[in-house]
Amino acid sequence: MSDAAIRIENLGKTYEGGKRALDGVSFDVPRGQIFGLLGPNGAGKSTLINILAGLVTKSQGQVSVWGFDIDQHPRNAKLSIGVVPQEIIFDPFFTPREALEIQAGLYGVPRSQRRSNALLAAMRLTDKADAYARTLSGGMKRRLLVAKAMVHSPPILVLDEPTAGVDVELRQQLWEYVRELHAEGVTIVLTTHYLEEAEQLCDRIAIINHGKVVANEPTRELLGRAQEKNVVVTVDRDVMAAPEASCFEQIAVSGERQLTITYRKDRVNAGEVLGALQAQGLGIVDVTTRDPDLEDVFLSLVRQA
């Protein structure tokens, strides 16, 4: 049994007409981690997830899910993964409880082992268990999709933009449940455009752009790649024009007595930046710094690619 929850080697997908969605993608998703799969729209994330789910046929490469090759053991591979799609797809004429029972039956889960009520409770849908699904709000429908993905207790859960268009309270409830699953040993693969979520939740992040992997590192190491840092300095007099210095990458007057300076921390430090201001006769009243975040790294890597 492989020590990787998902192993992808030289994966490629070319659609009819010649569009190449994935081009030699290779990476492992370690077991028991929350793994972020990020990229701009059209980068190939959904194609990759659909290949894992068995909905799209790959053009080249090897993929294994929980140690099962998706070509040689497709049934076991599908039993090992639950996918929450980005689109809200449901049958409007079934209740949430019926939807979960049917989904469990499709996976061959015996009645005695089904967890419909427990999943409804975890998704805070108990009071809507017997209502028609078409009467649910958008957030409730998305929670129902999460419950459907977990009916067969897969060791891997893929969340494709799970918080798109949902309110803050629901987002917090969903992440609380994801953390509980993670604590139980479930491997989570997350795609999201809310980069602050990925930064807070993910142990490791891969970034895809134009069908290629441009980064695949532990989150802390990935954040360490950002070299530009911002410092906001309040000075002791009004500033009409931004002063210049070789250690400034960018500088802007953001208030009558406030300057916002961008510098590269691999070339200079904050002390040199402040010293350059003092050398021009400006007194320092207050200083606020902002460390680079995942959005800075993401934009830098995507622009380079």
From TrEMBL:
Pfam families: ABC_tran. This is ABC transporter ATP-binding protein. It comes from the Bacteria. Keywords: ATP-binding, Nucleotide-binding, Transport. PANTHER family: ABC TRANSPORTER ATP-BINDING PROTEIN, ABC-TYPE MULTIDRUG TRANSPORT SYSTEM, ATPASE COMPONENT. InterPro entries: AAA+_ATPase, ABC_transporter-like_ATP-bd, ABC_transporter-like_CS, ABC_transporter_ATP-binding, P-loop_NTPase. Residues 6-235 form the ABC transporter domain. It comes from Sphingomonas arvum. GO terms for molecular function: ATP binding. Gene3D superfamilies: P-loop containing nucleotide triphosphate hydrolases (3.40.50.300). PROSITE patterns: ABC_TRANSPORTER_1, ABC_TRANSPORTER_2.
